[in-house]
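Practice problem: Endolytic murein transglycosylase
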Amino acid sequence: MDKETKKQVMFERMKEKKKEVKIVRRIVFALVVIVLLVVGIGGYSAYNYVTSALQPYDDTNDDPIAVSIPIGSGLDSIAQTLEDNNVIRDARIFKYYVKFNNESDFQAGEYTLTQSMTLDELVESLKTGRIYREPVFTVNVPEGLTLEQIADVIEARTSHSAEDFLNLVTSDEFVQQAMTDFPNLLTSEIQGENVRYALEGYLYPATYPFYEENPSLQSIIYTMLQGTLDNVQPFRALLDEQEKSVHWLLTFASLLEEEATAKTDRKTIASVFYNRMDAGMPLQTDPTVLYALGEHKDRVLYSDLEVDNPYNTYKNQGLPPGPIAGSGRTSIEAVMDPSTSSYFYFLADKEGTNHFAETYDEHLANIQQYLR
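Answer key — structure tokens:
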């Protein structure tokens, strides 16, 4: 092979190498671009995922979610419990957030959480053992109110009218749905023939926080029903033992609530009612007469005691057909744990102090001494 031929061969080889280098460069460039795109997309997706996980699960959903944190639970199990109950989006992100903020000392307990709570609110709740949120507004339902009176409270504190509240809470369809949703609280007894309002006495008196501007009437009513369920649950075993029902308990407790004054000994009044029922005496409590009349009066007249109504305990023995008002925890406890006494009569003086008597003559003497 002569020199010219060798040069030509070398030249051709160099051209082929240059082509190969260009191809390799293009491949490398393409790979780099692909890697960068993958990293960029992955990083962007990861950023969005983490950002999303740091937000409330659903900031429009304030429905209560019952979450149980057992004693001895560590951060891992707490985070997983919150994720399993759809309170947070990602247990790992929650753990990193807690560790980054150096939070600890979470408390075991039964929590009612919502999907709209922020991570800070959840952390504070778990640290303090209570729900830590700033409510949009609160509704205070005092003890001893009837459904009609609660309706006025709802109208004053929410955008709902008293009429709409009463229409819903007395609707057969709504009551039936509530019975389905609260089977351990609402039984067929609330639909007894002589019961005026099925849900009378079942809306627990308390101060309720609400975390949205316009909660539905159903959610408001269900919140109060849950309050009653929570407060009668501790007495369920004792009720079963005594073969008594929740309806019986709330009916009895409502009488104590309406008879109560600031200084009233509910447990002793409960003993009076027990003693009268055991002796076959009518309860003869004025609040049942007023409920039968359907009006408030400062003074019950003798003529009022003759009203022919199933709720009138002067005319009918035993408890009325259903509660006559909402009862607080103190009255409920008094029914289940009354004092032991021989009293059959009582009255409250002008200062609200109660005076008890074993005989009618003693009672008449108390009337003469404290009310004349």
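Discussion: The longest strand covers residues 65-69. Students who identified this feature from the tokens alone can consider the problem solved.
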